[in-house]
Design a protein that fits this description.
Layout: E1 3-8, H1 16-30, E2 34-39, H2 54-57, H3 66-74, E3 78-84, H4 92-100, H5 102-111, E4 123-130, H6 140-152, E5 155-163, H7 176-199
Parallel strand pairs: 1-2, 1-3, 3-4, 4-5
Helix pairs in contact: 1-7
The protein binds flavin mononucleotide (FMN).
Keywords: Flavoprotein, FMN
InterPro entries: Flavoprotein-like_sf, FMN_Rdtase-like_dom, ISF_SsuE-like
GO molecular function, one term: oxidoreductase activity
Length: about 200
């Protein structure tokens, strides 16, 4: 059975990215995946303090809720991250979590000795984002951020769901086509992970 960690990065519990992620999770569960959900806004997670205590073992030395999420990710084959676009990047809740994942980057590249640029990924990532505007470059910055965040987790960016033109809480509910895509992507993600597990 595929295990997936789902990260809600919006400060709004019923925000657009939360609605999309919930639909994705629903789809993945329908395909039999075991999904653990974390609302980053509800967790006590310090920003990275650049102590580099993680250099010894790959474990961050700050004692807070980060470890619960990191452990779930390490036991997962799939990670889904959903964040609103804030100033062309992820939300602060999401970015604080991402920066703490530098400890996982240290483990992967410095401790375990994975060569830089390696495509040897043990998990897959799915990224969901929503923004108010409709500009062509709206997701350019955040896609790089997401790609290198997943890389630190030992995951490649398998796919993304990017929604423009939604602003107020729940605006996305007026777009059944996006909800359908989110649901389908969740199903496809779980099927892909299950297929990959069978090959191993
Ligand atoms: C602090 C802040 C910064 C934002 N920056 C952008 C931005 O750079 N580009 C954009 O299109 N929308 C921006 N928005 C709008 C949100 O991306 C939009 O409302 C989105 O649907 C929120 O998703 P959520 O409901 O999942 O939180 C910003 C909103 C806030 C509160």
């Amino acid at each position: 059975m595929a295990r997936i960690t789902a990260l809600y990065g919006s400060p709004r519990r019923e925000g657009n990215t939360s609605v999309l992620l919930r639909k994705t999770v629903e789809g993945a569960r329908q395909e039999g995946a075991l999904v653990e959900e974390f609302f980053l806004r509800d967790l006590r997670i310090s920003p990275c303090l650049e102590l580099y205590g993680c250099k010894e073992t790959g474990r961050c030395v700050i004692d807070d809720d980060f470890h619960r999420v990191a452990e779930a990710i390490q036991e997962s084959q799939g990670v889904i991250l959903a964040s609103p676009i804030f100033f062309y990047t992820v939300s602060a809740h999401t970015k604080i979590f991402m920066d703490r994942c530098q400890s996982l980057w240290v483990k992967r590249y410095w401790i375990d000795g994975v060569p830089f640029g390696s495509k040897d990924f043990v998990r897959r990532g799915l990224f969901i984002a929503a923004g108010a505007t409709k500009g062509k470059k709206l997701f350019d910055g955040v896609l790089l951020t997401a790609r290198y965040f997943f890389d630190a987790l030992g995951a490649d960016l398998w796919d993304s769901l990017l929604v423009r033109g939604v602003d107020a809480e729940g605006d996305v509910l007026q777009h059944p086509e996006h909800l359908k895509t989110a649901h389908e992507k969740g199903k496809e993600f779980a099927r892909m992970l299950q297929g990959a597990a069978k090959k191993d």
